[in-house]
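Record 1 of the preview.
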Amino acid sequence: MIHAIVQYGDPVLREMGAKIEGITEVHRKLVRDMLETMHENNGLGLAAQQIGMALQVAVIDITGSERPSQLFVGVREVPIESMMPMVLINPILSRPRGEEVGGEGCLSFPGISLDIQRAHEITVEATGVDGKKRRFTCTGLLARAVQHEVDHLNGVLFIDRVDPAQLEPFKPELEQFQKKNKRKH
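->
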């Protein structure tokens, strides 16, 4: 089932996702829906908050992107496609290495792209939808996508990672998103 993408201004985007204690059929359906929604919207990643649920669940699929990435399980490099689409439940990031600035967009901010500084390499520990824990290290676009989605799971948005002056050209759009998308709780 394809869900509507929650846009900037909706308070759920600022909520810390609840930890998933046991993976059930409800979670498996949520992941299927998130993957379908992400692909339908031509996204590289999607966090549960972006479909209105404050949970520690994100999906990523960078298949077909020409931006370089590497993926290591232990010390062995594995093909990116072997782990796509990727499901991250309760992810924990560690061992950031190097820094690089790269362009990022976000499905919750249609039409806005910003240059964001992130770690070039990151180690990820997460549970898959099958309930198995995984640990891997990634670089490039995959590392950027993982960091972007994990930020969402913690209520952090990519606009929080830039100098406010960089947002100045987008101020009218951001204000319009905020007005249009405020929900009453």
